[in-house]
Amino acid sequence: MSGFSPEKLADENVQRICELAKAEVEKTTSKSYEEFTAVKYKEQSGAGQTFIIKVRVDNWIHLSVYKNSSGKIILNGVQQDKNKPDLIEPF
């Protein structure tokens, strides 16, 4: 398995992944988000893809999301209370 990519600007594919994970993120954080915009991300490919995504909500959160080879999205974790300049790091 290779390491994570350099940080990239989020595209429509990453936004779609965020939208598919949103309900689980809201359940995990016990919050409801009006704004939920993917801004930047890193990815790692292997037997599927792992994404670490910086998301603009009422502040900032980071998501760890796994997309398996059949396209299923699995939320691995959420880091809350992040700031815009915080680096995207695997967790």
From TrEMBL:
Residues that span the membrane, as ranges: none
Residues in Cystatin domain copies: 3-72
Cell compartment(s), UniProt: Cytoplasm
Keywords, alphabetical: Cytoplasm, Protease inhibitor, Thiol protease inhibitor
Principal localisation: cytoplasm
A Pfam family that the UniProt record links to this protein: Cystatin
InterPro entries named among the record's database cross-references: Cystatin_dom, Cystatin_sf, Prot_inh_stefin
Gene3D superfamilies: 3.10.450.10
Recorded GO MF terms: cysteine-type endopeptidase inhibitor activity
Gene Ontology cellular component annotations, sorted alphabetically: cytosol
Entry annotated with the keyword Cytoplasm: yes
Domain of life: Eukaryota
Record keyword Transferase present: no
Family in the record: Belongs to the cystatin family.
Designated name of the protein: Cystatin-A-like protein
Native source organism of the sequence: Lates japonicus (Japanese lates)
